[in-house]
Amino acid sequence: MQETHLQPLPCPSSLPFTYFPPLFYYCMATSTSWLDRSRTIAGPGFNRWLIPPAALAIHLAIGQAYAFSVFKKPMGALISGDVNAPAPSDWTPGQLAVIFSIAIVLLGLSAAVFGKWLERVGPRKAMLASALCFSGGFFISALGVSIHNIWLVYFGYGFVGGIGLGIGYISPVSTLIKWFPDRPGVATGMAIMGFGGGAMIGSPLAVALMAYFKDSAPMGVAPTMLTMGAIYLVFMMFGVFTIRVPAEGWKPEGYVPNTQHSTLITAANVDADTAIKTPQFWLLWVVLVTNVTAGIGVLETASPLIQETFSDVSMGEGLGVTAAAAAGFVGLLSLFNLLGRFFWSSASDKLGRKPTYMIYFGLGIVLYALVPTLAANHSLALFVIVCCVILSMYGGGFATIPAYLRDLFGTMQVGAIHGRLLTAWSTAGILGPLIVNYLHQSQKDKGLTGAEAYQTVFYVMAGVLVVGLIANMLVKAVNEKYHYKEAAAKKVAA
Amino acid sequence: MDNRINPTVPEPAATPSSGLQTALAWLYVGVPLLWGVSQTFIKALDLFK
C-alpha cells in the first residue's frame, strides 16, 4: 500500500490573505511554509537597510505598552462615565495597574522562554507570533472592557499581549546583529529606539481614538482597543514580510572582523543554555537590572517631583511648574529616553561596550546624587538637563545590551540569550516602583515634604548604580571552555 | 553532487532591492515615528512656557 503523507497547503504570501489570523495559525503550523527560516534567507542584491524598518515596524507597535497609562482613567470610569467621579463598581487604579505589571512580567518571561524557539524558526515566524499576540491582546481586552470583566483584560492585554511584547522585542535583534556585524550598536539602537518611540505614537493615537468613539461606547475605550489592535496588526505585518536573514557566511562588502579592538569581543559562539551558566551573563543581568531600576526611579517621580519642588511657593507666585508643564517635562524625558537609545548604542560601537556602561554608571552616580541638591537650590534649568541626561542613559542601557551580549557570546544565539537577560527588566519593573514608593512614603511619614521627601530616593538609586558599576567592572571575556564546539555538539546529538 | 546541508531547501533567489523600495520602507516607519515625536515635542514645549 502506498504510504500517504499529509502535505501542507501552500500558504500564499499575498497581503490580503495574511491579514486573516486563523490562516496564519495554519501556516505557522506547517513546516515548509513561507514563514520558515529557510524561506527568509536573502538572496544576492538584498539591501540590508531594509531590515531596520522591518524591526522598527515591530518595536514601534509594541512600544505602545509604555503608553498604556493613557487608558487608566477612562477604564476607571466605564460605569460612571466621569473620570472625576468613578462609581463604586468602577475598576480602581490598583486593579488597573496590575494590567501593565502582568504585561511587563510576561514580556521578560516570554522573551526568556521563546528565545531558543525564535533562533530555530527564524524572525519571520516570531514576528508573526508577536503581531498576533499583541493585536490579539487588544481584541480580547476590548471584549473585557465591553462586558466589564477585568480578568479578561488581564488575560488579553496582560497575558496574551505580554507574550507578544516579549517575542516582538527580541525577534529582530539577532537578525539585525547578523546584518550589521560592522556596527551592531547602531543597528540594535535603531530598533530599540522604536520601542521608546512606540509610546509617543500610542499615547496620542489612543487619546484621539477615544475622543472619536466617546459617543459610541463607554469612554470610547472598547472600540479604541479594537481599532488599535487592527492598526497594529497591519503595521507589524510590514515587518513580517520585509524581514530577511543573511545567507550563511554573508558579510558586508569589505568587512573584516575586528577582534583586536577589545579582548571582550569574541569570534566564537556560546549557546543560550551554556551562556546562563557563565558569570558574565549574571553580571550583565545585574548591570541591566540596576540601570533600569534607577531609571524607573526618575520616571516614577518626575511629574510630582518637579511640581512639588518648583511650586509657586518656592519659585514665586506664577513662576511654579504647573501640571501641564510637568506633563511637558515627562514628554521631554521620553524624547531623551528615545534619543539616548540610538545615540549611546551607536557611540558604543566606537567606545566599546564596557566603557559605555562605565559612563552610564559613573556619570549616573554623580548625576543622581546631584538631583536633590539642584532641587534644594531651585535650579530648574540644571535640574531638567540632568534628568534628561539620566533618561538618555536609561534608554542607552536597554539599547546597548544586545551588542554587549554579541561581543561576549557571539551571534549564534544572541537573540535567545538576550531574551533570558530581559528577565532583569521584568524584575526591575517590579522592584523599581516598589523601592521608590516605599522610600518616598517613609520620608513623608517622617514629616518631610516637597523635594526633601525625594532625597532618599535619589541617594538610594545612586547606590544601586554603584552595584551596577562594580558588576560591569567585573565583566571579563568568556572562558573558552564555554565556547560552542560544533563537532562536540554533533557527537552529542548523534 | 549536491553539497548543500539541506538539499530540500532551495538556493535563495536573487532579491535585488531598489533605492525606492528602501526609501518607502523608511517612510512607512518614519512618518508615524515623526508624528509621535512631534506630538511629544509640542507637549514638552509647555515646560518652557
Secondary-structure blueprint:
The complex is a heterodimer of chains A (494) and B (49).
Chain A: H1 15-18, H2 21-29, H3 51-62, H4 72-75, H5 93-121, H6 123-146, H7 150-170, H8 173-179, H9 184-213, H10 221-242, H11 272-275, H12 279-309, H13 312-315, H14 323-351, H15 353-376, H16 380-409, H17 414-421, H18 423-445, H19 452-473, H20 486-493
Helix pairs in contact in A: 3-9, 3-10, 5-6, 5-7, 5-17, 5-18, 6-7, 6-10, 7-17, 8-9, 9-10, 9-14, 9-16, 12-14, 12-15, 12-16, 12-18, 12-19, 14-15, 14-16, 15-16, 15-19, 16-17, 18-19
Chain B: H1 19-44
Protein name (chain B): Oxalate:formate antiporter
Organism (chain B): Hymenobacter qilianensis
Transmembrane segments (chain B): 25-45
Annotation keywords:
A: 494 residues, mainly alpha, Growth Hormone, Chain: A, disordered N terminus, B: 49 residues
Can you tell me about this structure?
Chain B: This is Oxalate:formate antiporter. Chain B: Keywords: Membrane, Transmembrane, Transmembrane helix. Chain B: The chain crosses the membrane at residues 25-45. The complex is a heterodimer of chains A (494) and B (49). Chain A is mainly alpha-helical. Chain A folds into 2 domains: 23-29 and 47-242, Growth Hormone, Chain: A (Up-down Bundle), CATH 1.20.1250; 272-486, Growth Hormone, Chain: A. Chain A has 20 helices and no strands. Chain A has helices at residues 15-18, 21-29, 51-62, 72-75, 93-121, 123-146, 150-170, 173-179, 184-213, 221-242, 272-275, 279-309, 312-315, 323-351, 353-376, 380-409, 414-421, 423-445, 452-473, 486-493. In chain A, helix 12 packs antiparallel against helix 14 (323-351). The longest helix of chain A is centred in the middle third of the chain and has 31 residues, at 279-309. Chain B has 49 residues and is mostly helical. Chain B has one helix spanning 19-44. The longest helix of chain B has 26 residues, at 19-44. The interface between A and B is large, with 43 and 31 residues.
